[in-house]
Amino acid sequence: MVLVYATRDELVAYAPANLKARVPDEPEATRLLTSASQVIRRATKTAIYDTDAQNYPSDVDIRQAFRDATCAQALWWTETGDETGVAGQFQSMSIGSVSLSRGSASGAAAAGGQQLAPKAETELRDAGVLAGSIVQTYPWEGWF
Questions:
Q1: What is the DSSP string of 78-109?
Q2: Which residues contact 47 (CB under 8 A, 6 or more apart)?
Q3: Are strands 92-94 and 99-101 parallel, antiparallel or unpaired?
Q4: Sequence ranges of the domains in the chain
Q5: Could you report the per-residue pLDDT of 127-143, keeping only the tens digit for each?
Q6: Hey, is 115 helix, strand or coil?
Q7: At residue 49, what are phi and psi to the nearest 5 degrees?
Q8: pTM of whole model > 0.85?
Q9: Sign of CA dihedral 105, 106, 108, 110
Protein backbone atom coordinates (compact mmCIF):
# COMPACT_ATOMS: atom_id res chain seq x y z
CA MET A 1 0.00 0.00 0.00
CA VAL A 2 1.33 3.41 -0.98
CA LEU A 3 0.90 6.04 1.71
CA VAL A 4 -0.01 9.50 0.46
CA TYR A 5 0.09 12.10 3.20
CA ALA A 6 -1.85 14.93 1.53
CA THR A 7 -4.69 15.57 -0.90
CA ARG A 8 -4.89 18.15 -3.67
CA ASP A 9 -7.31 20.22 -1.54
CA GLU A 10 -4.75 20.23 1.30
CA LEU A 11 -2.03 21.20 -1.18
CA VAL A 12 -4.13 24.13 -2.42
CA ALA A 13 -4.81 25.23 1.17
CA TYR A 14 -1.09 24.98 2.07
CA ALA A 15 0.11 26.91 -1.00
CA PRO A 16 0.97 30.57 -0.40
CA ALA A 17 -1.10 33.18 -2.20
CA ASN A 18 1.97 34.38 -4.11
CA LEU A 19 2.84 30.94 -5.53
CA LYS A 20 4.48 31.52 -8.93
CA ALA A 21 3.53 28.14 -10.37
CA ARG A 22 0.01 26.77 -10.23
CA VAL A 23 -1.07 23.70 -8.30
CA PRO A 24 -1.66 20.97 -10.89
CA ASP A 25 -5.07 19.50 -11.60
CA GLU A 26 -5.92 15.85 -11.06
CA PRO A 27 -4.57 13.26 -11.75
CA GLU A 28 -1.19 15.07 -11.86
CA ALA A 29 -1.68 16.46 -8.35
CA THR A 30 -2.12 12.98 -6.89
CA ARG A 31 0.93 11.70 -8.79
CA LEU A 32 2.99 14.63 -7.48
CA LEU A 33 1.76 14.15 -3.91
CA THR A 34 2.47 10.41 -4.10
CA SER A 35 6.07 11.13 -5.17
CA ALA A 36 6.43 13.77 -2.47
CA SER A 37 5.07 11.32 0.13
CA GLN A 38 7.74 8.80 -0.89
CA VAL A 39 10.47 11.40 -0.28
CA ILE A 40 8.96 12.25 3.11
CA ARG A 41 8.72 8.58 4.03
CA ARG A 42 12.37 8.06 3.05
CA ALA A 43 13.44 11.09 5.11
CA THR A 44 11.62 9.71 8.17
CA LYS A 45 12.54 6.05 7.73
CA THR A 46 14.34 5.88 11.07
CA ALA A 47 11.84 8.03 12.98
CA ILE A 48 9.96 6.47 15.87
CA TYR A 49 6.27 7.36 16.14
CA ASP A 50 3.00 5.52 16.65
CA THR A 51 0.95 4.56 13.60
CA ASP A 52 -2.65 3.65 12.97
CA ALA A 53 -3.91 0.49 11.22
CA GLN A 54 -3.09 1.99 7.79
CA ASN A 55 0.48 2.94 8.90
CA TYR A 56 -0.19 6.68 8.98
CA PRO A 57 1.10 8.58 12.02
CA SER A 58 -1.54 8.31 14.75
CA ASP A 59 -0.48 11.47 16.60
CA VAL A 60 -2.41 14.41 15.13
CA ASP A 61 0.58 16.78 15.24
CA ILE A 62 2.93 14.32 13.57
CA ARG A 63 0.37 13.46 10.92
CA GLN A 64 -0.09 17.17 10.24
CA ALA A 65 3.70 17.54 9.91
CA PHE A 66 3.79 14.71 7.36
CA ARG A 67 0.94 16.37 5.45
CA ASP A 68 2.58 19.80 5.52
CA ALA A 69 6.00 18.40 4.60
CA THR A 70 4.44 16.55 1.67
CA CYS A 71 2.75 19.73 0.49
CA ALA A 72 6.00 21.70 0.91
CA GLN A 73 7.89 19.08 -1.11
CA ALA A 74 5.30 19.11 -3.90
CA LEU A 75 5.20 22.92 -4.03
CA TRP A 76 9.01 23.09 -4.11
CA TRP A 77 9.04 20.82 -7.15
CA THR A 78 6.27 22.90 -8.74
CA GLU A 79 8.32 26.07 -8.18
CA THR A 80 11.71 24.65 -9.21
CA GLY A 81 10.52 22.32 -11.96
CA ASP A 82 13.06 19.74 -10.72
CA GLU A 83 11.14 16.79 -9.30
CA THR A 84 13.84 14.28 -10.20
CA GLY A 85 16.75 16.21 -8.67
CA VAL A 86 18.65 16.15 -11.96
CA ALA A 87 19.22 19.91 -12.12
CA GLY A 88 21.03 19.79 -8.78
CA GLN A 89 23.63 17.44 -10.26
CA PHE A 90 25.23 20.23 -12.24
CA GLN A 91 27.35 23.08 -10.97
CA SER A 92 26.18 25.19 -13.89
CA MET A 93 23.54 24.71 -16.55
CA SER A 94 22.22 26.67 -19.51
CA ILE A 95 19.18 26.20 -21.66
CA GLY A 96 20.02 28.21 -24.79
CA SER A 97 22.46 26.12 -26.87
CA VAL A 98 22.52 23.61 -24.00
CA SER A 99 25.60 23.92 -21.79
CA LEU A 100 25.86 21.59 -18.79
CA SER A 101 28.84 21.02 -16.53
CA ARG A 102 29.32 18.69 -13.63
CA GLY A 103 31.59 19.85 -10.98
CA SER A 104 31.92 20.17 -7.29
CA ALA A 105 28.22 20.24 -6.50
CA SER A 106 27.58 18.57 -3.17
CA GLY A 107 24.75 17.13 -1.14
CA ALA A 108 21.91 14.78 -1.97
CA ALA A 109 21.24 16.38 -5.33
CA ALA A 110 24.84 15.85 -6.42
CA ALA A 111 24.49 12.15 -5.80
CA GLY A 112 21.47 12.08 -8.07
CA GLY A 113 19.06 11.45 -5.23
CA GLN A 114 15.94 13.39 -4.50
CA GLN A 115 16.55 16.34 -2.28
CA LEU A 116 14.32 17.18 0.66
CA ALA A 117 12.78 20.62 0.24
CA PRO A 118 13.98 23.11 2.87
CA LYS A 119 10.42 23.84 4.06
CA ALA A 120 9.63 20.10 4.20
CA GLU A 121 12.71 19.57 6.36
CA THR A 122 11.58 22.36 8.68
CA GLU A 123 8.10 20.84 9.02
CA LEU A 124 9.53 17.42 9.91
CA ARG A 125 12.29 18.74 12.17
CA ASP A 126 9.81 20.91 14.10
CA ALA A 127 7.67 17.80 14.64
CA GLY A 128 10.73 15.89 15.88
CA VAL A 129 10.68 13.13 13.28
CA LEU A 130 14.02 13.67 11.56
CA ALA A 131 17.22 11.96 12.63
CA GLY A 132 18.63 13.57 15.73
CA SER A 133 15.24 14.80 16.91
CA ILE A 134 13.55 13.76 20.13
CA VAL A 135 10.07 12.57 19.21
CA GLN A 136 8.63 11.88 22.62
CA THR A 137 9.86 12.13 26.17
CA TYR A 138 8.65 10.07 29.09
CA PRO A 139 8.26 11.14 32.75
CA TRP A 140 11.48 9.39 33.75
CA GLU A 141 13.31 11.41 31.12
CA GLY A 142 12.48 14.68 32.84
CA TRP A 143 16.16 15.50 33.17
CA PHE A 144 16.22 16.75 29.56
A1: HHHS-TTS-GGG-SEEETTTTEEE--S--STT
A2: 129, 130, 131, 133, 135
A3: antiparallel
A4: 8-141
A5: 999 876 555 555 555 54
A6: coil
A7: -160, 155
A8: no
A9: positive
